[in-house]
Amino acid sequence: MFKKWFGKNKSTGNDNFQVFAPLTGETVPLEKVPDPVFSQKMMGEGVAIRPSEGKVVSPADGEILQVFPTKHALGIKAENGAEILIHIGLETVALKGTGFTVHVEAGNKVKKGDLLVSFDLDYIAKEAKSTITPVIITNPQDFRSVSPVAPERVEAGKDAVLELAKK
Q1: For residue 149, is it within any domain?
Q2: Which of 17, 47, 66, 74 has the lowest CB atom count within 10 Å?
Q3: Strand partners, 76
Q4: Which residue range is the domain that position 122 belongs to?
Q5: Which residues on neighbouring strands pair with residue 80, listed in sequence order?
Q6: Residues annotated as catalytic (active site), given as ranges
Q7: Distance of alpha carbon 146 from alpha carbon 76, whole angstroms
Q8: How far is Cα of residue 83 from the mean position of the Cα atoms in its chain?
Q9: pLDDT of 106-142, one tens digit each?
Q10: Pick from 139, 35, 123: which is nearest to 87 by CA?
């Protein structure tokens, strides 16, 4: 009731939510991803990671919304309502699932750091356009802001890559 009259208590720190790195590797600004669908932010706001190992973990506590039939991408709804798309590599849909092992399915509850997908990094590097993996908030309009906060190198499940400010 007091929030209605006086606004949110900015000192609590509860207005922000962090999305953690789903992969270990080097961060790449979304604008530098060599695919206009991502670099022009047609899918939403986010960051990209050039992975150094073939594991994708959950970037937040939440629920798996979708695993693409070709295993190259999945969607998660975080507990705060953020919808997160993890798209492993670029033009990897053409691989038709080869090189990917999915460990979850739609409807599964996940915790930050849970293994979601394993993939053959060498195979993806050889057969796809790029291993760069966009991590996208597909509903940025539901937040006051979506800001990249990632250091140059990130460790899966340990380093924050995005900070979302609630409206």
Answers
A1: yes
A2: 66
A3: 64, 84
A4: 27-166
A5: none
A6: 87
A7: 16
A8: 9
A9: 999 999 999 999 999 999 999 999 999 999 999 999 9
A10: 35
* CATH number of the domain encompassing residue 33: 2.70.70.10
What dihedral angle (degrees, nearest 10) is formed by the CA atoms of 36, 38, 40, 44? 150
Query: Which two tokens mark 79?
Result: 């507990």
DSSP 98-147: TTEEE---TT-EE-TT-EEEEE-HHHHHHHSSB--EEEEES-GGGEEEEE
**Tens digit of pLDDT for each residue in 47-59?**
999 999 999 999 9
144 located within any domain: yes
Each residue of 57-79: pLDDT tens digit? Answer: 999 999 999 999 999 999 999 99
Per the structure, the count of domains in the chain is 1
- 1-11 pLDDT, tens digit per residue, is 333 333 333 33
Could you tell me which residues come within 8 angstroms of residue 74 by beta carbon, excluding any fewer than 6 positions away?
56, 64, 65, 66, 67, 68, 85, 86, 102, 104, 116, 117
pTM of the model: 0.90
Look at residue 68 and tell me if it is in a domain.
yes
- Dist CA 117 CA 70 (whole Å): 12
Which one-letter amino acid corresponds to residue 119? F
Burial of 78 (0-12, 13-18, 19+ CB in 10 A): buried
Residues counted in the chain: 167
Q: Does 15 reside within a domain?
A: no
